[in-house]
């Protein structure tokens, strides 16, 4: 491995450890905030928050110490392996930005056009952009839109919110 | 009991329920052979649909049908492309893929399906056999014991589900706190709602489940942009694979028992059941050096275990109302929504529902194995579906399902918030199952704690059952913590 890529890997590990510590801090802050807010409540409402919250803060402190130790230079500790699902790889940050942009874009599209227009458009664009043929893109878009229309609109009568663009408002 | 067994069978065999079970089996099988979509994701997507249903038998048939068979069809990608279709088929890859490379994919697949069928039948038998023992135990429990049991379930899932015990426990606690959001009807206090009417009803479990599991799995699938380069032909030996299972019948029975036991213990789940079964096969079978080189026994053991595990996980779920993992937590939520109350009731007045679960497990496994065997060739081709056809469809179902929680735009914001939380948890190795379990168990835990306190004061802490259960909690928490500390020191 070249010095440059080793340097890059070390930077990635440092950044990852820093993010990990911040996340633990966030969890600790949430627990602390919950305890502070519930302090004034009657016992019936606050008992579970206070009992579990105090245990949680102690555990968050333990986890924070462990995270800080792993941030120390020369630490050999590897990230714990998860049996549930492996932790996402840290590399290729743009891949995260890319998929989150699609998700947020889809939600914006829903606000602008409403569900029934946004769904086929989103499916079509996603399939087409990543290499699907015209036929496949159209078929999947029609299937997804058709399924949602039949099940949610015709059968379940879901009250869709009005889109921001009046042109797409369903009559 | 016989009457309840008959009622359960008739309920499942009713045309409506039977049809829904077949739909469930089809969905569960599809989820299995398409790598990247997990059983919990599918169940989370199904929650908004089933909560509108009025027939509890139909809900049992659909959801248990989905849950029971996910591990059967997941052998396809494990054996053909060395990618586990579900977390329960990881060990199958070792010998299954080696057999496929040798041109024995058909043999490996048929052995896998037959072992799955037998595991799927032995599991419900174990569940059935446990009922006479569970009944007096559950009926002897009061609110203090149930409170400690909920703590034990949460602690077990917390410390065992992610090999990161502290993070798991913290996730469980956060889950319980999320469950407290909303108006507390007993005290009239608005908890963590901050004057926002949307939060008065609490946070919908549908949004938590979809956000924690649906979106992060989708993100993972989209990030990998996986394309499968090498295709495996099915080859020959389909009948030989079936014979292999009967030739190694004792291994199949043992592995099924291991799977059911792992399922019974909250927190372990499929991903451990197959490895446990694989390990016991290596330790107990002759010519162990052949394992890992394409030995059919390496397929039989994990596949029998991962199917019987499902039935085992219903034992604590139905008897104590404590789900053993993510899938059973979601199923439990749906059960409660349609009027089935897991806990002591399931062993008394609701015994027919318990039998309906057992019958569905049996029937769903038979149907799934029939589908997998009959349509092996087309299903094998479907394993190669590119990511861009799956990702947008899952996202659509996740978003529409999330919106169905309250039919409000705020649902979508909450969905994004939990998706971000799920993504960060996944990114930093925090187990998500305990958080979901905390949300599911939170209300119950609080109720049991309050009932124990108001009825017994602090004396409930000295009840023998409570002391024994608290000791169990301590052992469950401290042993993995100590093990992790030792592992850390060794590293």
Overall mean pLDDT of chain A stands at: 82
- Give the assembly state of these chains: heterodimer
Structural class of chain B: mainly alpha
Strand percentage of chain B, roughly? under 5%
Shape of chain A: flat
Structure summary, number of beta strands of chain A: 0
H/E element string of chain B?
HHHHHHHHHEEHHHHHHHHHHHHH
Using the alpha-carbon principal axes, give the shape of chain B.
Answer: globular
Overall domain count of chain A: 2
- Rg over C-alpha atoms of chain B, rounded to the nearest angstrom: 22 Å
The value of Rg of chain A in angstroms is 24 Å
Distance between the termini of chain B: 54 Å
Largest sheet of chain B: 2 strands, antiparallel
End-to-end gap of chain A: 63 Å
Low-confidence stretches of chain A: 76-86
Outline the low-pLDDT stretches of chain B.
Answer: none
Number of domains of chain B: 1
Q: Please, what is the average pLDDT of chain B? A: 82
Q: Helix segment count of chain A?
A: 5
Largest binding interface between chains: A-B, 71 and 72 residues
């Amino acid at each position: 491995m070249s010095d440059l890529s080793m340097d890059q890997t070390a930077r990635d590990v440092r950044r990852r450890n820093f993010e990990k510590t911040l996340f633990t801090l966030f969890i600790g802050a949430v627990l602390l905030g919950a305890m502070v807010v519930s302090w004034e409540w009657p016992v019936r409402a606050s008992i579970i928050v206070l009992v579990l919250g105090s245990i949680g803060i102690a555990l968050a402190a333990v986890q924070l110490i462990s995270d800080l130790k792993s941030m120390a230079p020369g630490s050999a500790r590897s990230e714990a392996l998860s049996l549930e699902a492996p932790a996402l790889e840290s590399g290729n940050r743009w891949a995260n930005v890319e998929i989150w942009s699609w998700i947020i874009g889809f939600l914006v599209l829903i606000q602008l056009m409403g569900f029934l227009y946004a769904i086929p458009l989103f499916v079509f664009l996603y399939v087409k952009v990543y290499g699907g043929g015209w036929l496949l893109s159209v078929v999947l878009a029609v299937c997804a839109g058709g399924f949602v229309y039949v099940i949610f609109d015709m059968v379940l009568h879901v009250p869709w919110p009005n889109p921001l663009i009046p042109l797409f408002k369903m009559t | 009991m016989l009457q309840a067994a008959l009622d359960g069978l008739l309920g499942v065999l009713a045309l409506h329920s039977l049809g829904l079970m077949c739909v469930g089996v089809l969905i569960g099988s599809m989820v299995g052979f398409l790598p990247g979509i997990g059983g919990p994701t599918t169940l989370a997507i199904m929650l908004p649909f089933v909560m509108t249903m009025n027939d509890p038998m139909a809900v049992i048939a659909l959801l248990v049908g989905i849950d029971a068979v996910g591990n059967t069809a997941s052998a396809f990608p494990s054996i053909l492309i060395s990618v586990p279709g579900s977390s329960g088929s990881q060990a199958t890859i070792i010998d299954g893929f080696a057999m496929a490379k040798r041109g024995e994919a058909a043999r490996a697949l048929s052995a896998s399906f037959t072992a799955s069928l037998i595991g799927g039948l032995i599991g419900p038998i174990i569940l059935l056999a446990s009922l006479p023992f569970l009944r007096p135990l559950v009926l002897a429990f009061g609110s203090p014991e149930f409170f400690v049991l909920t703590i034990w379930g949460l602690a077990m899932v917390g410390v065992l589900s992610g090999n990161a015990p502290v993070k798991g426990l913290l996730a469980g606690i956060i889950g319980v706190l999320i469950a407290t959001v909303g108006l507390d009807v007993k005290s009239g206090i608005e908890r963590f709602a901050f004057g926002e009417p949307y939060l008065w009803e609490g946070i919908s479990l549908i949004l938590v489940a979809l956000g924690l599991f649906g979106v992060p799995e989708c993100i993972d699938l989209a990030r990998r942009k996986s394309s499968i380069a090498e295709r495996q032909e099915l080859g020959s030996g389909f009948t030989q694979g079936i014979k292999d299972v009967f030739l190694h019948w004792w291994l199949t029975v043992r592995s099924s028992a291991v799977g059911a036991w792992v399922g019974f213990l909250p927190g372990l789940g499929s991903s451990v059941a197959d490895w446990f079964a694989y390990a016991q096969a290596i330790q107990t079978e002759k010519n162990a050096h052949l394992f890992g080189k394409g030995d059919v026994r390496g397929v039989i053991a994990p596949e029998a275990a991962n199917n019987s595990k499902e039935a085992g996980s219903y034992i604590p779920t139905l008897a104590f109302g404590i789900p053993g993992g993510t899938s059973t937590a979601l199923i439990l939520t749906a059960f409660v929504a349609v009027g089935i109350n897991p806990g002591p009731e399931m062993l008394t007045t609701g015994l027919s529902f318990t039998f309906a679960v057992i019958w569905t497990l049996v029937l769903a496994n038979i149907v799934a194995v029939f589908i997998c065997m009959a349509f092996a060739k087309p299903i094998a081709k479907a394993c190669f579906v590119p990511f861009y056809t799956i990702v947008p469809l899952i996202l659509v179902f996740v978003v529409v399902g999330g919106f169905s929680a309250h039919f409000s735009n705020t649902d979508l914001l909450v969905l994004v918030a939990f998706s971000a939380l799920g993504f960060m948890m996944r990114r930093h190795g925090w187990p998500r199952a305990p958080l979901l379990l905390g949300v599911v168990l939170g209300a119950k835990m609080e109720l049991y704690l309050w009932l124990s306190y108001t009825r017994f004061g602090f004396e409930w802490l000295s009840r023998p059952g409570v002391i024994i259960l608290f000791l169990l909690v301590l052992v469950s928490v401290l042993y993995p913590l100590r093990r992790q500390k030792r592992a850390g020191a060794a590293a």
